[in-house]
Amino acid sequence: MRMLFAKIVFHFIQCRETMELFSLKLDKPLNWRQRLAIRMHCLCCPGCSKYGEQLPWLRTAARKLEENFNYENLASFTPEEKAKLKEVLAKQEPES
Fold first, then answer.
1. For residue 51, what pLDDT is reported?
2. What's the Cα-to-Cα distance from 59 to each of 64, 65, 66, rounded to whole Å?
């Protein structure tokens, strides 16, 4: 009977779904089923539990980096540095 109730109330989610819900949670409040699904999954998945703890910190760090980034330094590359950067980027481009 309990298992039937659990299946009706929520379905057990996988890590990928849990990560998507954690990301969604940063932008808007989750409904009770989504919150419950995250909690149930994290009880048996320490990796997702840690991910959920770290994601808000990572978002805050990325925003602070963006606010403090000095775009003027990009213009101060020497011609040699620019050539090296182009070379590295050319190696990383996917082939069509």
1. 94
2. 9, 10, 11
